[in-house]
Amino acid sequence: MLRLNLDRIFKVKGITKTNQYLIHLGNSEGYASQLVNGRSVSIRFDKLEILCKALNCTPNDLFNYSDDGEKPLPDGHALFSISRSDAIGEVNKLLNDLPMEKIEELYKILKGKD
Predict the structure, then answer these.
(1) pLDDT digits 0-9 by tens, 12-55
(2) Bridge partners, 3 (sequence order)
(3) DSSP state of 78
(4) Cα 69 to Cα 77: distance, rounded to the nearest angstrom
(5) Residue 5: CB partners within 8 Å, gap ≥ 6?
(6) DSSP 76
(7) Given this model, what pLDDT does residue 3 score?
(8) What b/e sequence results for 41-78 when a residue is b if at least 16 CB atoms lie within 10 Å of its CB, and e otherwise?
(9) Which residues contact 18 (CB under 8 A, 6 or more apart)?
(10) pLDDT for 43
(11) Residue of 11, 29, 92, 112 with fewest CB within 10 Å of its CB?
(12) C-alpha radius of gyration, the chain, whole number
């Protein structure tokens, strides 16, 4: 099943007030709530483009595919390329477990400073 999954990218981008963020992008309160709670059954292309521009991502970053078992897809099907793991949660846990010295080293590496 193909689903819009904004939680993942909001976590990565550090966006905690998700409804307010979506309203700021021009969505109504009701539609923002539907998007955040995974109840939206459709998204217009112009709204998808606004999200991608604001979040600096592609549509693939906003969707998740999981096999619902009704009509299994063959191994290697292209939709599996947008199946997501819980890498974000794992990275957060790893970062929380690092001592400050290692976090500073990682920061320098990410910034390209030696």
Answers:
(1) 888 999 999 999 999 999 999 999 988 888 899 999 999 999 99
(2) 64
(3) G
(4) 14
(5) 38, 62, 63, 64, 84
(6) T
(7) 87
(8) eebeeebeeebbeebeeeeebbbbbeeeeeeeeeeeee
(9) 6, 10, 32, 36
(10) 92
(11) 112
(12) 17
Name the region of 75 (left: φ>0; alpha: ψ -120 to 50; beta: rest).
Answer: beta
Q: Do 79 and 73 touch, CB atoms closer than 8 A?
A: yes
**Distance between CA 5 and CA 43 in Å, rounded?**
12
Give the residue from 38, 31, 34 showing the smallest Cα distance to 8.
38
Nearest residue to 59 (alpha-carbon basis) of 16, 2, 15: 2
Percentage of the chain modeled with pLDDT above 90:
39
Residue 64 reports pLDDT greater than 90: no
**Mean residue pLDDT across the chain:** 87
Handedness of CA 78, 51, 8, 70 (dihedral sign): negative
Checking if the pLDDT of 72 tops 70, the result is yes
The amino acid present at 35, given as its one-letter code, is L
